[in-house]
Specification:
HIT family, subunit A; globular; single chain; about 130 residues; alpha+beta; 5 strands; binds zinc ion; five-stranded antiparallel β-sheet; 3 helices
Length: about 130
């Protein structure tokens, strides 16, 4: 993901969050939800209520935008890439439908590599305990 790339197509923006179409989509709908302020990765957040509610707002926005695009909401994959690699700016992937993904896309966005929202919040909360 390159936020500065001119071909990044901005789908949504408010004071806090922005959403782009992934330029290498893994599904008919593939959005990236990012924070406007620079955060390197979810691993750079804490388990504070502010940070976990930020994750929840990113999730809510991702689901809302997918549904507005007519995505099948029963076949959605959401998650953060923090387990293996981080691309220098926190981003949430929102992909639908997942059943049309190639084996390579399934691998790239598998639960081994892509952490779910729940898993991410759990990881943050463990940091604080
Ligand atoms: Zn990613």
């Amino acid at each position: 993901m390159d936020l500065t790339s001119p071909d990044s197509s901005l789908e949504y923006a408010d004071e806090e969050l922005a959403a782009f179409l992934d330029h290498r989509p893994a599904g008919r709908h593939h959005l990236l939800v990012v924070t406007r302020r620079h955060i390197r990765s979810v691993t750079h957040l804490s388990g504070s209520a502010d940070d976990t509610s930020l994750i929840r707002r990113m999730e809510a926005l991702a689901r809302r935008l997918l549904s507005e695009r007519g995505a099948d909401m029963s076949d959605v994959r959401l998650g953060f890439h923090w387990k293996l690699v981080t691309v220098g700016h926190l981003h949430l992937h929102a992909i639908s439908p997942t059943h049309e993904m190639s084996w390579l896309q399934k691998l790239e966005f598998s639960s081994w590599i892509l952490a779910s929202v729940g898993e991410t919040i759990k990881m943050l909360e463990t940091k604080n305990s």
